[in-house]
Task: structure prediction
Amino acid sequence: MSRQLVDAVQRVVAETVAQRAGSWGLATVTAVNGDGTVNLATARGPMASVRRLKSYSTPTVNDVVKVSRNPDGNWIVDGALA
Result:
């Protein structure tokens, strides 16, 4: 098997696993919507209308928040950092 083929297979496997794995990260609130969602600036780019937990009851623009993403690609805001 060629080294190029091995590298290509490893890259595809790594990308597939990354897409199917849940993860978390930090983001900045860019807008607060009236429907229980916020817009975010994330390392992956802007995200619109991300739902937030009830415990994050007073979101504010420029809050730095913890966000979680499940394997299906759904995002949720867990809350603001102190």
